[in-house]
Amino acid sequence: LTTHVLNSMHVLLPAVEHWFCRLANKTLPYVEDKNLKADIRGFIAQEAAHANAHKGAEIYFQTHGIDPTPFKDFLNWFFKDGFMGDTPFGIYGPFKRYPKQWLAFRMGIIAGLEHYFCFFGTWALDAEGLESADPAMLDIVRWHGAEEVEHRTVGYDAYRALAGDGVKGYLGRQLSMSFAFVAMVGFWLGSTVYLCHLDGTKE
């Protein structure tokens, strides 16, 4: 169970990180600060590298007869054409009319997730209990954790560039972070249960 709780990240995160990259690119035209623009571009490069790094986990899954492709396909749809897309479920009206606000809400979700990922990254770097894990998988997790700590504030700064620092921006951030928490727990549990279901072993 512990293995699948951790390995579920390799199923979840590629779709999430590609989504991060798409939204960060859409945020750049709204950013005037040159340093923040450079940080966002660095963030995009790191997230793209993270998404590609998770491909190494596919070898691990194949070795153990686990194929999470259907769940990964669902995630790619959810973040591109489903609820988290630019026009969720093909509904153009309000999302085309208020594209900046919809982008700000989703960037607020990213800011919330990056806060949680930073916490997780710090734990992954310091946790002594992980030393007995598969070395290759542990390397991926700890390298990823280190980079999450490094760019932990970029999502938040990008959100502020879109929504500002006023009351509306603050309330919007709280709404986005609440949604991020529920989504993170739901998807993490869902992917873990899915991997356990696919695992043919009974130990």
Quick structural overview:
By secondary structure, the chain is mainly α. 77% of the residues lie in helices and 0% in strands.
Structure report:
The chain is an all-alpha fold. The protein contains nine helices and no strands. The chain has helices at residues 2-27, 34-53, 56-63, 69-80, 93-97, 99-126, 135-150, 154-163, 167-198. Helix 1 (2-27) runs antiparallel to helix 6 and helix 6 (99-126) crosses helix 7. It is globular and about 50 Å long. The termini are close together.
- Content of β-strand: under 5%
Q: Per the principal axes of the C-alpha atoms, what is the gross shape?
A: globular
Compressed to H and E, one letter per element, the order equals HHHHHHHHH
Separation of the first and last Cα atoms: 10 Å
Mean pLDDT equals 88
**What's the total count of β strands?**
0
Helix content: over 70%
Major sheet details: none
The class by helix and strand makeup works out as mainly alpha
Q: Nearest-angstrom radius of gyration? A: 17 Å
Number of helices: 9
- Unreliable segments (pLDDT under 50, ≥5 consecutive)? none
Q: Would you spell out the secondary-structure blueprint of this structure?
A:
Layout: H1 2-27, H2 34-53, H3 56-63, H4 69-80, H5 93-97, H6 99-126, H7 135-150, H8 154-163, H9 167-198
Features:
203 residues, mainly alpha, 9 helices, 0% strand, globular
